[in-house]
Design brief:
The complex is a heterodimer of chains A (about 250) and B (about 350). Chain A has about 250 residues and is of the alpha/beta class. Helix content of chain A is about 30%, strand content about 30%. Chain A has a single domain (about 5-245), classed as P-loop containing nucleotide triphosphate hydrolases (Rossmann fold, 3-Layer(aba) Sandwich), CATH 3.40.50. Chain A contains eight helices and twelve strands. Chain B has helices at about 20-45, 65-90, 95-110, 135-160, 165-180, 195, 205-220, 225-235, 235-240, 245-270, 280-290, 305-325, 330-355, and strands spanning about 5, 10-15, 115, 120, 190, 275. Chain B is built from 13 helices and six strands. Chain B has a single domain (about 20-50, about 60-355), classed as ABC transporter involved in vitamin B12 uptake, BtuC. In chain B, the strands form three sheets. Chain B has a two-stranded antiparallel ribbon. A two-stranded antiparallel sheet of chain B has the order 3-4. Chain B has a two-stranded antiparallel ribbon with strand order 5-6. The chains are: A alpha/beta (about 250), B mainly alpha (about 350). The interface of A and B includes residues 91, 140, 143, 146 and 179 of A.
Chain lengths: ~250, ~350
């Protein structure tokens, strides 16, 4: 067994004539937290969309947990153990916290096709447990999440990903829409995931956050991976030079 | 006193304060409207709206009036239950009233009796083979009509992605045309006794109450109900979470169609006849009942209990206006105002909520 959880080889995505992602070679090891940074349009989100099966790659290979995979959709990726926290909240505002956590994978007391009887008590108990292990504090889980602040809702989304992600969590700018305190709370949860050894890919524009949270920083520029730097061996200026193209070159393996 | 904690964003948040259920507001509105009619009745008519004032009957309430209030909304109420689950899942169904018309015509033509007062049935639309069939035949044929119409609605909406408003508007016009074409506009009458029993007396109320309880349970405790709220709340999230949104929508509209056709069976049985214009405007009354009952037209919020209360408000207003001897057009006008007021209130609540 290798300790590599995710590897991409020559991953390429073109939208018509636009080369959104070119020949991306990327490795994520077990327990590792990696940040993906870069300008708008550098290919960060495109990269994630190929890995999570939201889009189909033009060419290249993806290996997940030792096997070559080809996820036809986000559901398949999720079943394989990859959970994603999207930039836009993928929560149902009118449902309470347990219903959101278990949306699409409800537990049942007995099955009767579409009219299967929900096991609400167990879902609620396990939700409380999941919130506890991820250190998410929600005062009343039985309220619809519409009544909660943006930070609380993002925490619910992260708790959902953390509760079900067996192998990998991907977060696409989880704090972009949050205030200072809320951002701090989300960062704490991410640190908790690190302690639990859940590997993570974090897309972020916030370099302070990136240096705080991850082990390694991968820089995208114009669809290519231009740098892969250990946090301790680099600094903000260095990263910005790569992002803007002052420093450059290509790395064969990120 | 519940302890006030601070949310993650530093916002004050009182965990003890649960949002007041919407249904409570509707119930208060119902009580206020009943009280208003009671007061107006005593002032203007010198009679009580709610209580029994006749000496020869020994009951507290005016039971006759109460049973009329609920009887006259039971049949549209069955439609409203179907429309409620459609609106909660983020859609709309305008075809209910026309499905009532078409189903009533088709079901009644299989419910005819061969002999009327010893003479051959003058309204017979088929030959002898369709006469005096067991009651199950017209009922199943009727429910089948609703099922087919609902499946067409749902499939159009799920697979061609046309807005529910347009798909069901098309069905509304088509089904009305079908009900006129079926017997060249002639009414169909003289059902068998067993068919006539379906809508006799307070049977429509019993059917309405039973369906309301059944659908309250389904919407609250089953996967089906949960997914209705999820899809109406955030369809993209529901899709992303692995819910088969297309299948669910088809099921939602199919159930709405079946409920509309059930209302048609009860209505034609109660009236002992079927006419092409039956159920006209029922769809709008049903939507109005749901909206008055707090079902949000933007989807995701509302309940069967709310719709039942909305239906009762409807019934009370109609009875109240009759009781005050006001003309029917005042009823229509007031109904219109109440519908708009209910939607405006819903908007206000939503704005207040998003402001936090």
């Amino acid at each position: 067994m290798t300790d590599i959880i995710l590897e991409t080889r020559g991953l390429t995505k073109r939208y018509g004539g636009v080369h959104a992602l070119e020949d991306a070679n990327f490795i994520l090891r077990k327990g590792e937290h990696v940040a993906v940074v870069g300008d708008n349009g550098a290919g960060k989100s495109t990269f994630v969309r190929q890995v999570t099966g939201v889009e189909q790659r033009t060419s290249g290979q993806i290996f997940f947990d030792g096997q070559e995979v080809s996820h036809s959709g986000p559901l398949e990726a999720r079943e394989a153990g990859i959970e994603t926290v999207f930039q836009t909240l993928a929560l149902a505002d009118d449902l309470d916290v347990p219903s959101n956590l278990y949306l699409g994978r409800e537990l049942f007391k007995f099955r009767l096709g579409p009219f299967s009887w929900l096991d609400r008590r167990t879902m609620r108990e396990r939700t409380l447990e999941a919130l506890k292990t991820t250190a998410v504090k929600i005062p009343n889980v039985d309220n619809p999440i519409r009544n909660m602040s943006g930070g609380q809702r993002q925490c619910v989304a992260i708790a959902r990903a953390a509760a079900f992600a067996s192998k990998l969590i991907i977060m696409d700018e989880p704090t972009a829409a949050l205030g200072v305190q809320e951002t701090a709370q989300v960062e704490n949860i991410i640190r908790g995931l690190k302690e639990r050894g859940v590997p993570m890919i974090l897309i972020s524009h916030n370099l302070r956050q990136v240096f705080d949270l991850v082990d390694r920083i991968v820089v995208f520029r114009r669809g290519r991976i231009v740098a892969s730097l250990n946090r301790d061996e680099t600094d903000g200026n260095d990263i910005v030079s790569y992002i803007t193209g002052v420093k450059g070159g290509e790395v064969s393996y990120a | 006193m519940a302890q006030v904690t601070h949310g993650l964003g530093g916002l004050k948040y009182d965990p003890g304060k649960k949002a007041r259920p919407q249904e409570l507001n509707v119930l208060v509105a119902l009580i206020v409207i009943v009280a208003a009619f009671e007061i107006l009745g005593r002032l203007l008519m010198g009679d009580s709206f709610l209580f029994n004032t006749r000496d020869n009957i020994d009951t507290l309430f005016n039971q006759q009036r109460l049973s009329i209030i609920i009887l006259q909304v039971s049949i549209v109420g069955v439609l409203a239950i179907g429309v409620t689950q459609v609106i909660i899942s983020g859609g709309i169904d305008l075809s209910g009233g026309s499905i009532v018309g078409a189903t009533a015509m088709i079901a009644m033509s299989f419910a005819q009796t061969a002999l009327v007062n010893g003479q051959p049935n003058p309204k017979a639309i088929f030959g002898d083979w369709a006469m005096d069939l067991p009651v199950i035949v017209p009922v199943l044929v009727g429910l089948g009509c609703g099922l087919v119409a609902g499946l067409i609605n749902g499939s159009l909406i799920a697979y061609t992605r046309i807005p529910p408003f347009i798909a069901t508007l098309g069905m509304m016009v088509t089904a009305r045309g079908l009900s006129r074409w079926w017997s060249n506009g002639n009414p169909i009458s003289f059902p068998t006794e067993s068919f006539a029993a379906i809508g006799k007396g307070m049977m429509p109320v019993a059917i309405f109450v039973a369906l309301a309880i059944l659908f309250h349970v389904i919407m609250t405790y089953t996967k089906y109900g949960k997914h209705c709220y999820a899809i109406g709340s955030n369809e993209a999230a529901a899709r992303m979470s692995g819910i088969n949104v297309n299948h669910h929508k088809i099921l939602v509209y199919a159930i709405a169609g079946i409920l509309a056709s059930l209302a048609a069976v009860v209505l034609s049985s109660k009236n002992l006849t079927a006419q092409a214009g039956m159920g006209m405007m029922y769809e709008l009354d049903a939507i109005a009942m749901a909206v008055i009952g707090g079902v949000s037209l933007s989807g995701g919020r509302g309940s069967i209990i709310g719709t039942v209360l909305g239906a009762l408000i409807f019934g009370v207003i109609i009875s109240g206006f009759t009781f005050l001897k006001l003309d029917a057009y005042y009823q229509e006008m007031v109904k219109g105002v109440i519908i708009v007021a209910a939607v405006v209130l819903d908007q206000w609540r939503q704005q207040r909520r998003t402001r936090g």
